[in-house]
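Friendly challenge for the regulars: who can give me the structure tokens for this chain first? No prize, just bragging rights.
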Amino acid sequence: MDLYVGQLGDVPFTKMCGGNQQEGEMESCVLIASIPGVADAYALRDSKNPDAGTLRFTGDELRAAGIATI
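First reply, four minutes later:
Bragging rights claimed.
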């Protein structure tokens, strides 16, 4: 399955947060969206720098890393 073949377009991203990483009160967050037309596949972005790029994962990969899917 090629997760990068489809376009994301204006797909809405959901902000997911949890815990902090030794940065005081700053919470660690990611933006996550389902990839249109691909079952159980997700795009992730950095919530603090969404223009830095988008990574794509299968649901199995995210769950193996301990990340809940939407």
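The first helix runs from residue 59 to 64. The helical segments are 59-64. Your move, everyone else.
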